[in-house]
Design goal:
Blueprint (H helix, E strand, L loop, with lengths): L5 H15 L4 E8 L6 E12 L5 E10 L1 H26 L2 H15 L7 H34 L1
Antiparallel strand pairs: 1-2, 2-3
């Protein structure tokens, strides 16, 4: 216990006392080891062992470093959040300009409506504007996703 920070030491003794009462403890703890400035994640187990007569022999304590596991879980959580944002953006932010482009194209292809050159040019200008808007949204989404994953 000399190597544990005060909070981790308190948790250690709590788990130890619970194991003395016959409870098996499995916990994941963020612990600052002695003389270090960084925390490390450990999976800790406390298991009471008994003799054949039922008398407590002792408690085994196991600790496994799980920093890599925790970092992977955090990366997966960020990845899932980015996917959720991408799905939302796709269905909301991208949908409007795509719907506008589809409407403009439908009007330009309509044979029942006579469009003069000025009107046709105006529709093409709007279509071009919507294409640029979609391009900007996609670039922003990709840049944000990359930034989120790098952090």
């Amino acid at each position: 216990t000399d190597y544990l920070d005060p909070v981790s030491k308190d948790n250690f003794f709590t788990y130890f006392q619970q194991s003395l009462q016959g409870k098996t403890i499995q916990a994941e703890e963020k612990i600052m080891l002695h003389n270090e400035s960084n925390f490390t994640w450990l999976q800790i187990s406390f298991i009471a062992h008994y003799a054949e007569n039922g008398k407590l022999i002792g408690v085994s304590i196991g600790a496994t470093a799980i920093d890599a596991k925790r970092k992977m879980e955090q990366l997966q959580a960020k990845y899932l959040q980015s996917l959720d944002e991408l799905a939302w953006n796709s269905s909301h932010i991208l949908r409007a300009p795509v719907a506008n482009m589809m409407g403009i194209l439908q009007l330009l292809q309509e044979t029942n409506i006579a469009l003069d050159d000025t009107e046709r040019a105006q529709f093409l200008k709007h279509l071009s504007s919507e294409v640029k808007r979609v391009d900007t949204v996609i670039k922003d989404m990709v840049a944000k996703a990359r930034k989120d994953l790098e952090n």
